[in-house]
Amino acid sequence: MSKPNLLISECLCGVCCRYDGDHNKIDCLEELQSLYNLIPVCPEVLGGLLTPRPPAERIGDRVQTRNDIDVTEQFKGGAELALAIAIEKAKSPSCGYGEIYDGTFTRTLVNGVGVTSELLLQHNIQIYTEKNVQDLIKYNSDD
Ligand code: SF4
């Protein structure tokens, strides 16, 4: 039986696409790989942003870098390209789900979702983060 596809934030796979050129590799990557056909995507890079890049946060419907550059269009473009079932990086202004930084660049968290997560939710696509990825593993292992 073929494995189901799973869109996954590329930085969770160990790819250095984070704004600061680092990654967020998760410990259970091999386990996920055994259960799913992983499709790594980084919406910010898909949207045309370079790595490394200035950190950005959501401020209402806009996304702005710490040095006041509006990157909303790049975030929206990347989100459009990432429409599929998703496991997303928590807190990111693209992939965040549940909590994101509040737009003040002070590491303050508020309830909210990133630009890509918002678009995926609008299309009824289920989202997991690295915080509940074990549920996703259990879900497919129980089949
Ligand atoms: Fe990771 Fe998503 Fe940020 Fe790209 S946009 S670095 S995949 S959290």
Keywords:
4-stranded parallel beta sheet, 143 residues, globular, alpha/beta, 24% strand, binds iron/sulfur cluster, two-stranded antiparallel ribbon
| Mean pLDDT value | 90
Strand order, largest beta sheet = 2-1-5-8
Low-confidence stretches: none
With helices defined by DSSP (H or I, 4 residues minimum), what is the helix count? 5
Series of secondary-structure elements, N-terminal to C-terminal: EHEHEEHEEEHEH
Distance between the termini: 12 Å
Structural class by helix and strand composition: alpha/beta
Major sheet details: 4 strands, parallel
The level of helicity is 25-40%
**Percent in strands:** 15-25%
Number of strands: 8
Account of the 3D structure:
The structure is a single chain. This protein has 143 residues and is of the alpha/beta class. 26% of the residues lie in helices and 24% in strands. It has helices at residues 29-35, 43-46, 72-80, 115-122, 133-141, and strands at residues 5-9, 37-41, 56-59, 62-65, 86-88, 97-101, 109-113, 127-129. It has a four-stranded parallel beta sheet, sandwiched between helices. A two-stranded antiparallel ribbon has the order 3-4. A two-stranded antiparallel sheet has the order 6-7. Helix 1 (29-35) links the parallel strand 1 and strand 2 (37-41). The N and C termini lie close together (12 Å). The mean pLDDT is 90. It binds iron/sulfur cluster. Iron/sulfur cluster is lined by residues 9-11, 17-18, 42-44, 89, 92, 94-95.
